[in-house]
Design goal:
The complex is a heterodimer of chains A (165) and B (392). Chain A is α+β, with helices and mostly antiparallel strands. Chain A is built from three helices and eight strands. Chain B is built from two helices and 28 strands. The chains are: A alpha+beta (165), B mainly beta (392). The interface between A and B is large, with 81 and 40 residues.
């Protein structure tokens, strides 16, 4: 069968073509809704092999920090990211996601004076299966309200990451 | 069947093409970390007493993250009792130095502590001790000669001047009392001794002033603490005068009949320097006083003596009297370096001769007369200047 003959057959059976396209659309919508994605298609026939994009994970980065904060000063935020996927992702933004605490106890926690401004427009690549520690210089500020007990503290800064493939 | 296969393949191809052009978002949540500095400790301040009793302090500056800090200075007694800090070391200091003024007498130690906003660094170790030592309250010379308000070092004590300093209750046994004598040419003689523990006096070993020159001399007593800090000094003004006075001249003058001894005639003794009137006549202050002058006939070298005084004897080398003549109402006065006796009440009148020959008097002073410094008069005889002349 020639290509022209095949297209003629497809064009002649528009009803079946519409069903096939609808099936593909449903498949794509389902995968993207869960923040993951799939390569290939089941096509309704059980032949496809699915890929799912998992969220990156963050772990303790305290060992990588450099003490920089002081009342009236700014410092960096250190983030340790693991990409569980088999493909690379790029961290594009880091946003604050809750109250900042310290390892110095209640007095410091009550008045850390620390704020995280967030960072966007990033291009931090994380290879598939890799763990990367990176810093965001100047994104953490400490006000003069920081309690005396916060000297030498390590601050835990809750964040969320935005990543793309 | 062929149609089904073709339609399925076409749809799959569209799906694959669409996915290949997509950019998928993913994400994650967790914790980032950031850490804080600490204010570094400050080294113990160093100190000097720039201007007593002000203590200048300084310590190495520190920063936190390169940012400036402020400092708090504290002063402690040696046992560690906090003391109020005076100007200008109070409050929050922007610099790593200050000078505390009007520091009270005592032994003190200082600390410095850095701060930035609510952050406070560790207080430094305490400094070494600085002592604000009190000056002696007085200095006295135990063997100096005093005339009027002037204290003299004369020849008799020049090699062993005994000085004593008095100390207040703040005196410490760990202090050393110092004494120095300094003349106008900056020559010095000095002595030291342990200071009393509390109020008391220190009598220094006698000082030899042989290396000093005559004139104004300052005795200065002070304290050196075992910290090396020194107190102000208490001074005593002295005058060193080791030159013995001597007779310079003696001369008579007519006040009545020329060349005849009678009332109104005068005899003037001239010394090399002013003398202490009290050593000329006991209790004499220098104001005019009545004395009795006695002329003794020796047959050609009649002598004159003033009773009750240390003016010595005068040989007239002339024949003024035929027998002893006593001028019991004579007046003795002094001015500058001279003592003058104006004869009066001379009797008996017949004892005086007329037309006495010209002569040059000779005067032999008495060692009992002293200058104002207490140096004894030289007894070397003095011959009247100007040669033979009519004296009375």
């Amino acid at each position: 069968m020639t290509l022209r003959a095949a297209l003629r057959i497809i064009a002649a059976d528009r009803a079946r073509l519409g069903l096939a396209l609808a099936a593909v659309a449903v498949l794509l919508t389902a995968t993207l809704t869960f923040g993951s994605w799939a390569v290939g298609s089941s096509g309704g026939n059980g032949y496809s092999r699915a890929l799912t994009a998992q969220n990156v994970t963050l772990s303790d980065a305290t060992a990588s920090t450099t003490a920089q904060l002081y009342p009236g000063g700014t410092g960096g935020l250190w983030v340790k990211v693991t990409n569980p996927n088999s493909f690379p992702v790029t961290i594009t933004a880091v946003n604050g996601a809750g109250a900042i605490t310290s390892d110095q106890g209640a007095a410091c926690n009550a008045s850390t004076g620390v704020t995280f401004t967030g960072a966007s427009g990033l291009g931090q690549a994380v290879a598939g299966g890799a763990t990367v520690v990176f810093s965001l210089p100047g994104t953490v500020a400490m006000s003069n309200a920081s309690d005396n007990s916060c000297q030498g503290a390590i601050f835990t800064v809750p964040v969320t990451l935005v990543a793309t493939t | 069947m062929v149609r089904i296969i073709l339609l399925g393949g076409f749809a799959a191809a569209l799906a694959i093409c669409g996915v290949a052009d997509a950019s998928w978002s993913t994400g994650g949540g967790g914790n980032g970390a950031s850490s804080a500095l600490s204010i570094p400790p400050v080294a113990a301040p160093s100190h000097t007493i720039a201007t007593y009793p002000s203590v200048s302090l300084s310590w190495p500056a520190v920063t936190v993250g390169g940012a400036a800090v402020t400092y708090t200075v504290r002063r402690y007694s040696e046992p560690g009792v906090p003391q109020p800090v005076g100007n200008a070391c109070t409050g929050s200091l922007p610099t790593s130095s200050c000078t505390e003024s009007a520091v009270p007498v005592g032994r003190w130690q200082y600390t410095a502590q850095a701060a930035r906003a609510s952050w406070i660094g560790a207080e430094s170790a305490r400094s070494t001790t600085v002592e604000i030592a009190a000056a002696p309250t007085s200095v006295a010379c135990l063997n100096c000669h005093t005339y009027g308000t002037t204290t003299y070092v004369n020849a008799a004590i020049a090699t062993a001047v005994q000085l004593r300093a008095t100390f207040a209750s703040t005196s410490l046994a760990t202090d050393t009392a110092n004494l120095s004598l300094t003349d106008g040419a900056s020559h010095t003689a000095a002595a030291s001794s342990a200071a009393p523990d509390g109020a008391g006096t220190v009598s220094f070993a006698p000082l030899d002033t042989s290396t000093l020159v005559d004139g104004a001399v300052t005795a200065a007593a002070g304290v050196t603490a075992n910290t090396g800090d020194v107190s102000p000094t208490m001074s005593l003004a002295l005058v060193r005068d080791t030159v013995a006075p001597s007779g310079s001249d003696v001369a008579g003058a007519n006040g009545g009949t020329a060349r005849q001894l009678d009332n109104g005639d005068t005899l003037t003794y001239t010394f090399s320097e002013p003398v202490d009137p009290a050593t000329v006549k006991a209790g004499w202050t220098g104001t005019a006083t009545t004395v009795s002058a006695v002329f003794t006939n020796t047959g050609g070298g009649d002598t004159i003596a003033v009773t009750g005084t240390n003016l010595g004897s005068v040989d007239t080398h002339a024949n003024y009297v035929k027998a002893t003549l006593t001028c019991s109402a004579s007046t003795m006065s002094t001015s500058g370096s001279t003592v003058t006796v104006t004869f009066g009440g001379c009797a008996p009148a017949g004892s005086a001769r007329k037309n006495a020959a010209r002569s040059a008097f000779t005067w032999t002073p008495s060692a009992s007369v002293t200058d104002l410094a207490g140096n004894s008069m030289s007894t070397t005889a003095v011959t009247q200047t100007g040669g033979k002349q009519v004296n009375f």
